[in-house]
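Fig. S4 source data, part A: sequence.
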Amino acid sequence: MSAVPLFRTEGIVLRTHPLGEHDRLVALYTRDLGRLTAVARGARRVRSRFGAALELFTWGDAVGFERDGRGLLRLDHFDIRRSFRQIREDLERLAQGARILEAVARLTGERDAHPACFALLVRALRALESQAPERVQLAFTLRLLDLLGHRPRLDRCAGCGRGLGTTDVSFDHATGGVACPACRPAGAAALAPRTLAVLRGLQAAPWEARLAARITPAVEREAATMLDGYLEVLAGSALRAPRFAARTLRAADP
């Protein structure tokens, strides 16, 4: 994508890091420019003009520019549209929200706009404020994979192409598809029949139906674990958020 001398766009805060004594490095996922990393000068000062606007999950209007043609973006303003504070203040919502943000951060390209992915992210964060957190994360992940062209193939064997039922089926993270017993590669994870049936149903369902589906916690956990393995293959390395989620939920329910 060409250089961006000045930008104005909606964005969601994916992560931030301290930079020097007073600044922050901010990763945003934006509607018009995709994923961006920018310097927020003075953001760590007590009287910073950014205030609490750069908290994780915050949805706002970003204004910035490129510094001296060097490709380094500077964030000048970030005006809050919605803070999604409820997500940060609830451990379970925070844990699942972290998984959502990491999926976006790891699977999307720098300055590669995808407005449908941005709209999905906003929709998921809105749902995460009040809906079942694990369900929102599962529905989001399946839809994000669809939008990015990585839809898991759950109806036919990735090896031989044979149509499969729900028994004696495994999922191969390397190919992103199910495998029959004859084609099952080493390390492929066996899928419980109910989990596979639920995943197929969720793939075919619209967003609201995905959130309303009746799914047991055990099935949700197995489905999420399967998708985490696939996301790690696509990202090229291990994800941090699932481990953070596990630690957070153990702390919340000793």
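Fig. S4 source data, part B ends here. The chain has a mean pLDDT of 92.
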